[in-house]
């Protein structure tokens, strides 16, 4: 195998390994709550079977063997009676995670730990007794045979090569002495082999006339694992390749429109027009398909949290349960990658600074075990992730005190809860006297908000002291898809991202306030800077504005799009509104970025390219 092939193989191995570890963590968490769930056991078997096959193929036989032992234990079906099983499975998951970290950093993994784990499994007799199909095997010898003890010893050795013998009748010691005369041998057998195999092993021994097998437990090692058929086959595609396809499809739309406009509607036959329409429709459908291919279930991120919470709560002497829902909802892969750190920080805060110690909770009349609820839902093109803990809540008075100490507010300032939340989200305010690896709510939320803003999302907070804290993340379904407000300025179409638009106003001319610093408008008694996009884009010169009296009459009222972000507001004067759209975002050339007005572009259904305005570029100018 070439170095390049080896690198690609290791990359695939790491991806597969991380997915299997996430599955194990989720299944371990479920096993604690529903150990007798048949579906759960099937899922666990499937994961263990995948791990066994993965490492057998990758050349790690010791890991494959360990996975096989766990798989055999699961098929026994009495996990609730084996108190050592879940801790050992958790240790196995931790070792696999450590292996993944070693492979990612090109370190030599410590595979001896898996051998040690396998030895631990082998030392648990109560597990080994039940490794497979359990049956009583009764062997009938020829009545004229005088050496049944010798024949029995031969038979026993053959069976031991394929099964574990758990009982003997007559006793093994008596058979070895050869002093007994018996015509029937009864063996208790546990094996992964089927009934026919065991019967054939016995029949092949001389003087054996008949074999009767009574099965009292039959479990197939591959239960719940079906072969992968062609319609279930998955392949891996690089995210950048999907991005490139989206961009190429966008180019095709533009070229299609160019062909339409170059030829002219009248020059095309009806057949040609229909074909061109079908071409455009097909490209649109392919765009939708590729965007769906970018979506990844959120469970790829969320499955890591049960183990993290278990670790933190154990370290801090707390009891914490976590319940998650909606993990199968798909989100753009690029968004998932940027969600890891914010969600990890929120979850750590919930355990470390939200959930109280058991004695504190008992004194407050709460259950000793704290609870974290993590729910995911989808509303149109938005994903809602809500994290709620039933801990001590936000100490609003203490937040205001800390904010005043840092000079963010006046000492006697009267703030609403929403204003306190704004402080937490926009300033580094910590209510913790001692900082540690796990940040306090104040510092954490300000950095979290920055990350969420970066992917076009927003954060909402709700809290009640000594009761709960809820943090809600509102995210776009895909960064490749954006919701925009389509508008016109002097017959030219532009767009503004919908995320931070507060309202649309129709404002009489006499309501605008002109000053040396520019034009503003009073909104809730606060002056908001107004940007006239006709003038800013130089679609209307001052002389044209003065000479076209009729135009001013027609615009007795101006349409103002009110935009707000991080407490800063702007109003944009536009000519007309064409409604909301969900569009595919395309990057723009550097020379357009240097203009300082646009962030990206999109291609509409008809092939028209529309520039998307970046309101943040106007903030400094309007200040």
Question: What does it look like?
Answer:
The chain starts with a helix and ends with a helix. The protein has a six-stranded mixed sheet. By secondary structure, the protein is α+β, with helices and mostly antiparallel strands. It is built from 23 helices and 22 strands. Helix content is 45%, strand content 25%. Helix 1 packs antiparallel against helix 2 (38-58) and helix 16 (396-405) crosses helix 17 (417-426).
Question: What is the element layout, followed by pairings?
Answer:
Blueprint: H1 3-33, H2 38-58, H3 61-75, H4 85-104, H5 112-122, H6 125-128, E1 133-141, H7 148-160, E2 163-169, H8 172-177, E3 184-191, H9 195-203, E4 208-217, H10 239-263, H11 270-293, E5 295-297, H12 299-302, H13 305-316, E6 320-325, E7 330-332, H14 333-354, H15 358-363, E8 370-379, E9 382-389, H16 396-405, H17 417-426, H18 441-454, E10 458-464, E11 468-476, E12 481-489, E13 492-497, E14 501-508, E15 513-515, E16 518-523, E17 526-532, H19 533-536, H20 542-547, H21 549-554, E18 557-565, E19 568-574, E20 576-586, H22 590-593, E21 598-603, E22 609-613, H23 619-622
Parallel strand pairs: 6-8, 13-22, 17-19
Antiparallel strand pairs: 1-3, 1-4, 2-3, 5-7, 8-9, 9-11, 10-11, 12-13, 12-20, 14-18, 15-16, 16-17, 18-19, 20-21, 21-22
Helix pairs in contact: 1-2, 1-4, 2-3, 3-5, 4-5, 10-11, 13-14, 14-18, 16-17, 17-18
Mean pLDDT: 77
Secondary-structure class: alpha+beta
Q: Counting H and I runs of at least 4 residues, what is the number of helices?
A: 23
Helix content: 40-55%
In the predicted model, the low-confidence regions spanning at least 5 consecutive residues are 125-131, 217-233, 437-443, 541-553
**Euclidean distance between termini CA atoms:** 61 Å
Strand order of the largest sheet: 14-18-19-17-16-15
**Shape call:** elongated
| Beta fraction | 25-35%
Rg of Cα set: 35 Å
Strand element count: 22
> What does the main sheet amount to?
6 strands, mixed
């Amino acid at each position: 195998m070439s170095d390049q092939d080896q690198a690609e193989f290791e990359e695939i191995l790491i991806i597969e390994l991380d997915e299997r570890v996430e599955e194990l963590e989720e299944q371990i968490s479920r096993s604690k709550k529903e150990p007798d769930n048949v579906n759960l056991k099937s899922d666990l078997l499937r994961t263990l079977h995948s791990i066994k096959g993965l490492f057998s193929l990758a050349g790690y036989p010791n890991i494959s063997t360990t996975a096989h032992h766990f798989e055999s234990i699961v098929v026994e079906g009495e996990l609730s009676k084996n108190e050592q099983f879940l801790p050992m499975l958790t240790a196995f998951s931790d070792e696999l995670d450590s292996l993944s970290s070693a492979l990612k950093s090109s370190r030599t993994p410590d595979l001896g730990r898996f051998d040690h784990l396998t030895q631990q499994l082998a030392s648990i007799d109560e597990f080994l007794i039940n490794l497979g199909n359990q049956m009583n095997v009764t062997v009938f010898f020829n009545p004229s045979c005088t050496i049944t003890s010798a024949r029995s010893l031969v038979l026993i050795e053959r069976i031991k090569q394929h099964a574990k013998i758990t009982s003997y009748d007559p006793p093994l010691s008596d058979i070895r002495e050869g002093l007994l005369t018996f015509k029937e041998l009864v063996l208790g057998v546990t094996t992964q082999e089927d009934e026919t195999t065991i019967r054939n092993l016995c029949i092949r021994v001389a003087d054996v006339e008949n074999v009767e097998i009574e099965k009292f437990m039959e479990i197939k090692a591959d239960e719940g694992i079906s072969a992968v058929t062609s319609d279930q086959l998955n392949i891996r595609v690089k995210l950048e390749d999907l991005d490139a396809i989206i961009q190429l499809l966008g180019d095709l739309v533009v070229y299609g429109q160019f062909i339409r406009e170059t030829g002219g509607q009248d020059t095309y036959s009806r057949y040609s027009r229909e074909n061109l329409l079908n071409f455009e429709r097909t490209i649109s459908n392919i765009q939708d398909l590729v965007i769906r291919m970018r979506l990844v279930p959120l469970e790829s991120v969320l499955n890591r949290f049960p183990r993290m919470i278990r670790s933190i709560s154990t370290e801090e002497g707390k009891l914490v349960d976590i319940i998650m829902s909606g993990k199968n909802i798909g989100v753009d892969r690029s968004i998932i990658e940027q969600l890891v750190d914010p969600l990890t920080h929120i979850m750590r805060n919930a355990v470390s600074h939200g959930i109280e110690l058991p004695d504190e909770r008992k004194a407050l009349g709460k259950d000793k075990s704290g609870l974290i609820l993590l729910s995911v839902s989808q509303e149109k093109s938005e994903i809602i992730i809500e994290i709620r803990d039933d801990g001590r809540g936000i100490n609003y008075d203490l937040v205001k005190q800390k904010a005043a100490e840092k000079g963010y507010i006046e000492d006697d300032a009267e703030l609403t809860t929403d204003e306190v939340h704004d402080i937490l989200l926009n300033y580094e305010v910590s209510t913790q006297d001692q900082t540690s690896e796990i940040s306090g709510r104040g510092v954490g939320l300000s950095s979290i908000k920055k990350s969420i803003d970066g992917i076009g999302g927003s954060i909402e907070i709700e809290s009640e002291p000594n009761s709960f804290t809820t943090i809600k993340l509102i995210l776009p379904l895909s960064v490749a898809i954006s919701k925009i407000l389509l508008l016109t300025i002097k017959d030219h179409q532009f767009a503004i991202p919908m995320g931070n638009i507060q309202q649309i106003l129709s404002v009489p001319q006499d309501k605008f306030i002109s000053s040396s610093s520019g034009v503003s408008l009073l909104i809730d008694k606060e002056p908001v800077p107004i940007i006239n996009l006709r003038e800013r884009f130089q679609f209307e010169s001052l002389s044209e504005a003065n000479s076209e009296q009729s135009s001013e009459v027609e615009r007795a009222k101006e349409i103002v799009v009110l935009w707000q972000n991080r407490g800063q507001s702007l109003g944009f004067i536009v000519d007309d509104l064409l409604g909301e759209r969900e569009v595919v975002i395309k990057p723009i050339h550097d020379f357009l970025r240097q203009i300082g007005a646009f962030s990206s572009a999109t291609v509409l259904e008809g092939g028209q390219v529309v520039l998307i305005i970046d309101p943040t570029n106007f903030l400094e100018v309007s200040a």
